[in-house]
Specification:
The chain has eight helices and eleven strands. The protein is globular, with a radius of gyration of 17 Å. The chain is an alpha/beta fold. Bound molecules: guanosine-5'-triphosphate. The site of guanosine-5'-triphosphate has 9 residues, from strand 4.
Amino acid sequence: MSKPIYERVLIKISGEAMAGDNKFGINDATVNQVCSNIKKLTDMGVAVGIVVGGGNFWRGRQGSNMDRTRADHMGMLATVINALGLADALEQLGVPVRVQTAIEMKQIAEPYIRNKATRHLEKGRVVIFGCGTGNPFFTTDTTAALRAVEIDADVILLAKNVDAVYDSDPATNPDAKKFSEISYKEVLSRNLKVMDSTATALCQDNNMKIHVFGIKDPENLVRAVCGEKIGTIVS
Ligand code: GTP
């Protein structure tokens, strides 16, 4: 088996990825495939933190007539559903896991405490961070950047539905150019939709590497951690 090049990673899984082909809700088979690859990472001794989105249940911008703060609160709750779903799938595979939420809901999960999270990671437990940053107007991409920096991760593994960063949307432009490497500065100046600008700037300021790749093949998680040249590296 190939060797991991990272000791500690923060995986960002989009809500859409939890839905698989269903486009809504949680697709058990998809989530199990993703989790069995996360198990391969923990079996290799890699410490894994996870931030999951909520778009498979609710998107802040969906509530266009709603107060943005309230719509974002609903989105945060959607991330908790996904966090619990992932935790359950991982536990069924025998992976120890703890869920921490940025907004306290103690009956359901631990509150987010950075030092406790890093202790869990040291003990080989996967830690899933729910509720985003706990603030409206911030995305789960920004949460991924923030938690990655806080837990001192080596890289953010940005597992997306597209397989890399392109100079334009590959779904609409067949001539879209794929980047294998790109700088934060270029992502920001060309307004490439890798992460939102807040998240990208946070990574840039803290020198946090981002590896973007497609999650349709969940084995890409292992490939990325073993240093295979898939997707795009933002650094
Ligand atoms: P150690 O301190 O390393 O033993 O970690 P631990 O997580 O095993 O111990 P702890 O006693 O903190 O937690 C035992 C179980 O209770 C774990 O499944 C935790 O996730 C859970 N737990 C701890 N604190 C809370 C909380 O505030 N709310 C909820 N819902 N569960 C909690």
